[in-house]
């Protein structure tokens, strides 16, 4: 819960947040894993009359707004502070270092939301614990799988509660009442979310398993990838996913090495809830999803990472070969096979040219977000 601490004393601090891979096949909006690629956000308190300022170094620099009211990290921090009836302390400079590719299904928006909530918590000494931070992140992001992985690190299962507990009352400072709408006319006021809105549970995962993520050059915004999903599902498809979800979690968390069985894991990573509805947005996906240990030894299973278009291969060996195979399949396709792609940011150039992609071999990040001072 929330226990107010002393206000921040002006010491710089850095929030570091791991990226995530969400869903892991059948675990749509349920499973996530924090991976070893981290964004860092450093807050300093310089002598200046510029108020709140932002700088950004990293992926897609021209698409990330530096206006604090539009930047997802600072906007989230402004709104979190507002829900406590407070303004962020100023002057404050927020320096973002971000290697996580944007709009690719590696949880960049989740990491940004986590960083924003933690930034407000630290700079104002709001005293939110991990559960309360989760409540805020979940209220903003909407689904728990990617944010819980970024909050806790490791392999995480989560759910969102339908009947959470009431939020505490808001106490507004005079400064907030007088200045919020003038300072941030474009940031709608934000009510504190209900308490215990979600639950997350950290699971262990065998250290033998590595996460080969193959990242195509084009973006797929999560909002678009969610808009193509149906409102209702056939009973057979729900059962299909539930069966695989239970088996997948059991095998990945087993202490017994013989449970890391590619024949079982490859089948258990199949999904009928989101991937088939999104496959027209990710050219080459049917061929990629048909890869298996039978032709690629070491490969355990394949799925879309988050909402895509990145592809996740779980593997115990042969990582480079596996990553390159997926890169080559993307290269046989072009972005114009994906209807609606032209509405997205970041898709440019000749449409008929094969999709460029690169792969990374990532480990599970044992740590979730961290805050370091000084
Ligand atoms: N570090 C960041 N700073 C500011 N905005 C960010 C950052 N990371 C992500 N975003 C915002 O989130 C959007 C991508 O979110 P989303 O479509 O959910 O994709 P992803 O799968 O990467 O989470 C970006 O276009 C950008 O607006
Ligand atoms: N369960 C969500 C996960 C979105 O993850 P992201 O990495 O694409 O932000 C979904 O599949 O929509």
Question: How would you summarize the topology of this molecule?
Answer:
Layout: E1 13-22, E2 31-44, E3 52-58, H1 72-83, E4 92-98, H2 108-124, H3 130-141, H4 144-152, E5 155-160, H5 174-183, E6 198-203, E7 210-216, H6 222-227, H7 235-252, H8 262-268, H9 275-278, H10 285-289, E8 299-304, E9 311-315, H11 319-331, E10 357-362, E11 370-373
Parallel strand pairs: 3-4
Antiparallel strand pairs: 1-2, 1-11, 2-4, 2-5, 5-6, 7-9, 7-10, 8-9
Helix pairs in contact: 1-2, 2-3, 2-4, 3-4, 7-8
The structure holds adenosine-5'-diphosphate (ADP) and the ligand N[C@@H](CCOP(=O)(O)O)C(=O)O.
Adenosine-5'-diphosphate binds at residues 39, 64, 71-73, 96, 98, 102-110, 112, 221-222, 306-307.
Counted by DSSP, the helix tally is 11
In total, the number of domains comes to: 2
List each distinct ligand once.
adenosine-5'-diphosphate, the ligand N[C@@H](CCOP(=O)(O)O)C(=O)O
Number of strands: 11
* Weakly predicted, low-confidence segments: 1-6
Shape: globular
At CATH's second level, what is the architecture of the largest domain?
A: 2-Layer Sandwich
CATH fold-type name of the largest domain? Ribosomal Protein S5, domain 2
Order of helices and strands: EEEHEHHHEHEEHHHHHEEHEE
Percent range for β-strand residues: 15-25%
> How is the biggest beta sheet arranged?
7 strands, mixed
Structural class: alpha+beta
Determine and state the CATH class of the largest domain: Alpha Beta
- Rg over CA atoms: 21 Å
What percent of the residues sit in helical stretches (DSSP H or I)?
25-40%
Mean of pLDDT: 93
Pfam families: GHMP_kinases_N
Catalytic activity: L-homoserine + ATP = O-phospho-L-homoserine + ADP + H(+)
GO biological process, one term: threonine biosynthetic process
Protein name: Homoserine kinase
